[in-house]
């Protein structure tokens, strides 16, 4: 098996959030290579607070069924809040724009609530991915620092997937069913679920495969001081 990986700039620019996967699974060795890369992520005081559970096969199917059931009964148990209404100004506009681009690629109109809900539910079907990683964390103080460590881990994980020819998508929505995920995966209540990452091989024939989200220019995010 080839272990050649993409160069850094290629991996960074080729990474995208895939929302359609082939059913083809990765081997355990391939998954372990990605995990070994991600383990090199930095963290506050080297606490390495990531506690990761990866579900595939029947366990993944059980999670999918349970989360879809929760949706039917409007049950959500997030460990952390998330509300689009909290975004404002440019941040709100960018969130609207990314949704517009995605739904337009799928040919789903704003008014078609039923179809939009169906598309939303694809999150809990892991977009067809053969694997899903759940990123749990211990709780320290207000949790901001530890959550940033998990973000560091997630980005290394995602870049490693891309560099090795796979794809992934981080999903806040998977954290909406924290109690269910803890129960099925037998995770202690001391760990909080920040988000999940569905991963596998991107489906090159999916309508959204070539969709890329724009970035604002560097100078809109950064001020250089001399
Ligand atoms: C922490 C985090 C959580 C996210 N949660 C979701 C999610 O629940 N569902 C989804 O479809 N996309 C989710 N995304 C993907 C973002 O929409 C995506 O990263 C953004 O639009 C930029 O696109 P790109 O990743 O393709 O460059 C999430 C991204 C991050 C970083």
TrEMBL record:
Report the Gene3D superfamilies cross-referenced here. NADH Oxidase (3.40.109.10)
Q: What cofactors does the UniProt entry give for this protein?
A: FMN
- The answer to whether keyword ATP-binding applies is no
Q: Entry's CDD domains?
A: PnbA_NfnB-like (cd02136)
Spell out the Pfam families in the cross-references: Nitroreductase
> Ranges for the Nitroreductase domain?
12-201
Query: What are the entry keywords?
Result: Flavoprotein, FMN, Oxidoreductase
Stretches of the chain forming a coiled coil according to its record? none
GO terms (molecular function) for this protein are: oxidoreductase activity
By sequence similarity, the record places it as follows: Belongs to the nitroreductase family.
What name appears for this protein in its UniProt entry? Nitroreductase
């Amino acid at each position: 098996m080839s272990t050649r990986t993409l160069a850094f700039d290629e991996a960074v620019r080729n990474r995208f959030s895939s929302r359609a996967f082939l059913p083809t699974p990765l081997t355990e060795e391939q998954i372990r290579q990605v995990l070994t890369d991600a383990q090199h992520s930095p963290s506050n005081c080297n606490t390495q607070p990531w506690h990761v559970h990866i579900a595939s096969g029947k366990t993944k199917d059980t999670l999918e069924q349970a989360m879809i059931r929760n949706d039917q009964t409007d049950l959500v148990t997030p460990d952390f809040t998330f509300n689009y209404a909290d975004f404002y100004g440019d941040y709100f506009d960018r969130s609207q724009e990314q949704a517009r681009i995605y739904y337009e690629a799928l040919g789903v109109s704003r008014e078609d609530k039923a179809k939009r809900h169906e598309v939303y539910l694809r999150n809990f079907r892991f977009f067809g991915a053969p694997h899903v990683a759940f990123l749990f964390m211990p709780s320290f103080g207000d949790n901001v620092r530890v959550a940033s460590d998990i973000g560091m881990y997630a980005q290394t994980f995602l870049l490693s997937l891309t560099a090795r020819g796979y794809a992934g998508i981080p999903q806040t929505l998977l954290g909406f069913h924290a109690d269910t995920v803890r129960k099925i995966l037998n995770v202690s209540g001391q760990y909080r679920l920040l988000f999940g990452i569905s991963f596998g091989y991107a489906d090159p024939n999916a309508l959204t495969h070539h969709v890329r989200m724009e970035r604002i220019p560097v100078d809109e995010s950064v001020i250089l001081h001399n």
